Amino acid sequence: MTDTALLEVRDLSLSVKTDAGVARILDHIDFSIRRGEIVGLVGESGCGKSTVVRVLLGLLPKGAQIDSGRILFKGVDLLTLRPKDVARRIRGRSIGFIPQDPYQSFNPTFTVGKQMLEVLRWSGLPDEAPDTRWTRAVQARHRAKLIEMLEAVNIADPAGALERYPHQFSGGQRQRILIATVLACQPDLLLADEPTTALDVTTQMQILHLLRDLALDFGVAVMMVTHDFGVVAQLCDRVSVMYAGQTVETGTAHAVIHQPAHPYTERLIACHPDLSETIVGIPGQVSSPINPPMGCRFHPRCLIATDACADQRPVLRTLEGAHRVACLMREAAS
Amino acid sequence: MLRFIIIRLLLLIPVLLGLLLMTFVLLGLAEGDPAAAIAGDNATPEQIQRIREELGIDKPVIAQFGAYVVNVVQGDFGVSAYSNRAVGADIAQRLPATLELTFVSLLIAAVLGIGFGTLAALWRNSVFDYLVRIVSVAGLAMASFWIAIMLQLLFSMQLDLLPLRGRLPSGMEAPAVLTGSYLLDSLLTGRIDAFVQSLRHILLPALTISLGGIATIARFTRSAVVTTLQTEYTTYEEAAGFPRRRIVFPYALRNSLVTPVTQIGLLFGAFISSAVAVEAVFDWPGIGSYLVQAIFNSDFQAVLAVTLVIGAVYGLVNIAVDLAHALLDRRVAERL
Ligand SMILES: Nc1ncnc2c1ncn2[C@@H]1O[C@H](COP(=O)(O)OP(=O)(O)O)[C@@H](O)[C@H]1O
Ligand SMILES: [Mg+2]
What we know:
The complex is a heterodimer of chains A (about 325) and B (about 325). Chain A is about 35% helix and about 25% strand. Chain A is built from 11 helices and 12 strands. Chain B has a domain at about 100-245 and about 255-285. The complex binds adenosine-5'-diphosphate and magnesium ion.
């Protein structure tokens, strides 16, 4: 593992014009991922996690506008690339994607093989240049690679599986197939958007461990989007906590879980039975990105907020090593 | 699948019997007395009674119906009380013209409807989308005979581009009968001249009939494509790097075809009924004009036979539609 960052998201803000007004969905997002590492992106639903994923894939929502920031991927700012180049060189090829709901993510009217081979067609195997023609020989290579990968994720009868339809597989099997496919392309970075939320609890852990083991084997860095600190504790090297479109805390998984610095992180960890003795939920809900609270967006739900929190947006400040937090109360304390 | 086809074909039998019985009863209730019609104005009651007995319509309805069904099963549709010709032969001669017209109309409606609907969905809220919507509403609202006359005025009278009536120019020999469709028969027998001419002749009547269908299919296709493009699997395809054109075709389109294909089955009935009016305007020698004649003449045998044949074709088309569903969507196939 090298220390140079594979991905650096700096100060990223994004807004979308809607009929109800401007939605400021991302507000100064800031985190980084190194090669081969697993980083958790954590926050309640509605915090903007999937939007971060979409932006990284170069798929801005309609009417969206980048207000500030940079996305350095292997040293190149993705926001300065032409959409055509992002599509050709980055999306699917260097940055892979695992969706949230394996039940909904397959086209029901085509065989699994047809769809997954099409994924390989556009992302290519690692040794194939972009714009490689999709000849029979290339297709046969892709097929062989896919079968090999399906074996690696424990799909029985991989060749037969390619001829079957999505509904003939369980949710867990479908997620395995998606993992096999994306890893066949060997991207540098894998974006997994809550990859197990749609599965039952026993399957969840199997899939997560499979994903971690394979990512380590292949040297693929993973951004693991989740709302569950349990997943972070089990899988992640580092973690970035988001609240309502703002990065509130980043650091090693260990430091953030054992010494959470932001009140939101504390409350989020307290929701988890394995990480906390007393389980308490967080009253209220994530504020809407349209006319969000001024200052720290968490202040209306924060137990220790003062008037200053409603005035001033806290910026990320380093606590110790890589542990950083954006909270005025913390600053005052230190 | 084979089991499904056999069951559906067997189910068609009671449906057609029911259809026949209803037509039978309704014709019995209708005012026209075929015997009186045949005998003419100066006939005596005795003469009319004699014709009644000849026709078998002096017996109770159920007995008549039973006798009729037995004949039909043996392939005998009876003799027209009006023309004294075998009804079966008349239908065999005229049905292919109507079927050709209807299927060409369905083809036009399907191709244009699916094409326009897909484009409208891709260019949502564009000028094209609004245009399709407006034309759709207009297409549904206008009576087909009126459209027929307008098309004739424009393309035949004004622009002199397409022929006014008939299936072929007068004097041109019809292609040898293989399927009964001039288009197919002329192709199969290598009669290119006849093919071009039949195509020119069928265009206006087929377009007239298909307009409403284009509108319906375009609307259903548009909303299906819009829905499909918002699904999570479309998002996945985007994220996996599929180019837009592949996302649309084949991936979104095949999913979106299920509803329009259902519409095609339903439209077939509507097309047959609008063929009745359109055939009259374009002088198309099909079963529509034959049926109109038969109704005016209280020609029971002819009306019954046409009803039965159209009912059977309608049933077959709908079985075909279900099979098309099964081909489009494996989950449907498994339920068959
Ligand atoms: N295209 C869009 N237009 C307007 N609001 C959007 C759009 N996409 C997402 N949002 C809003 O942005 C917020 C974050 O959404 P999302 O990124 O899906 O969050 P998460 O994945 O963390 O649940 C939500 O409040 C959502 O309603
Ligand atoms: Mg999400």
